[in-house]
Design brief:
six-stranded antiparallel β-sheet; single chain
Length: 109
């Protein structure tokens, strides 16, 4: 599969004390939790990983865990979707192993 790498963007979401802005490159330390919103990892548009909403925060995987699983896979398009009440974002995995911000929105509320 030929991957269409999208141009990274700079975040325009300023955030607040409760809802910080979106990082241009998602940190490997990011905990991919899911509760009232949260993170989804997609592989070619299909769910690759989603923590259970009943999981404890520290029971969910980190981005580093996902990166270790997919680091040698350059044939598939991996993305992370963040969907929260007041902000949302999408990051795409690039060949250099970084996950770049490619879109953001004002959330689902």
């Amino acid at each position: 599969m030929k991957i269409n790498y999208l141009t990274p963007i700079k975040s325009t979401h300023l955030g607040c004390a409760c809802c910080p802005g979106n990082n241009q490159i998602l940190s490997y330390e990011t905990r991919l939790y899911y509760g009232f919103g949260g993170y989804l990892v997609l592989k070619n548009g299909n769910i690759y990983y989603q923590a259970s909403s009943g999981d404890e925060f520290f029971g969910s995987k980190t981005l580093l865990d996902i990166e270790k699983e997919v680091c040698s896979d350059h044939e598939n398009d991996y993305r992370i979707i963040l969907s929260l009440p007041l902000r949302g974002a999408e990051w795409q995995r690039n060949l250099d192993g970084n996950w770049y911000l490619i879109s953001e929105n004002s959330g689902f509320a």
